[in-house]
Amino acid sequence: MERRDALKNLLTFIPLGTAFAGITAIGLRFITPKKQEVTRRIFALHLEELPVNASRKITDLRGKDLMLVRTDNQEVKAMSTVCTHLGCTVQWEKDKQEFYCPCHGGRFDKNGKVIAGPPPAPLDTYPTDLEGDNIFIYFKDKNG
Ligand code: FES
Questions:
Q1: Minimum-distance ligand 1 atom for the alpha carbon of 106
Q2: pLDDT tens digit sequence for 58-89
Q3: Which helix or strand (DSSP H or E) is residue 111 part of?
Q4: Residue among 86, 91, 108 whose CB has most ligand 1 atoms within 8 A, to mutate
Q5: Residue 114 Cα to ligand 1 middle (Å)
Q6: Domain check: are 99 and 52 in the same one?
Q7: Cβ-count burial of 21 within 10 angstroms (0-12 exposed, 13-18 middle, 19+ buried)?
Q8: Are residues 13 and 55 in the same domain?
C-alpha cells in the first residue's frame, strides 16, 4: 500500500514540477532585460596620419586591437588583427598590400578576404566613416 501511494505521489508531482519549471522559465524570459545591440562610434585618427596604402594599428578603449588601412585617398578599412584560424596577430605587408599571419602562413587581402593558407573565414571588419579629416570606426556591442 505504501509503495502504491509513493508511486501515485511521484506520478502526480513529476508533471507538476515540469509544468512549474516551464512556467518559471517563460516568466524569467519576460522579467530579465533583453541584451541590446549598441553601436559605438570612436574617433581613430586624422586622415593625414595615415598615408595611402599604409596601415596603423590602434587599440580602442576596451582593449580591442584593430588595423586601419587607407586603401585610397578617401577610403579607410578597419579590421581585426586576430587571425580567424587560431587567433594569432596578423601583420600588414605594405609592399604586397596584404595581411600576413606568421603562425601558419595565412594571407588576407586588403579587404580582409582569405587569399591563402588555413584561415577559414575573412578578418572581422568594422565600418568606418570620414568626417572631414577625421576617421571614425563603428563597433556593435551587446549591452546588458
Ligand atoms: S593562426 Fe593564422 S594562419 Fe594559423
A1: 3
A2: 988 788 889 999 988 899 999 999 999 999 99
A3: none
A4: 86
A5: 11
A6: yes
A7: exposed
A8: no
**Cβ–ligand 1 contact at 123 (below 6 Å):** no
Same domain? For 17 and 40 the reply is no
CA of 117, closest atom in ligand 1:
3
Question: For residue 44, what are the domain limits?
Answer: 36-143
Q: Is the pTM of this model over 0.85?
A: no
* pLDDT score at 140: 83
CA atoms of 121 and 135, how far apart (whole Å): 26
Continuous segment of H or E residues that includes residue 42 = strand 36-46
Nearest-CA residue for atom 1 of ligand 1: 86
- Tally of structural domains, the chain: 2
Between the CA of 121 and the centroid of ligand 1 the distance, in Å, is 11
End-to-end CA distance of the chain: 54
Residues with pLDDT less than 70, the chain:
1, 3, 7, 10, 16-17, 26-30, 33, 143-144
* CA angle, residues 122, 127, 35, in degrees to nearest 5: 90
Nearest to 75 by CA among 49, 46, 52: 52
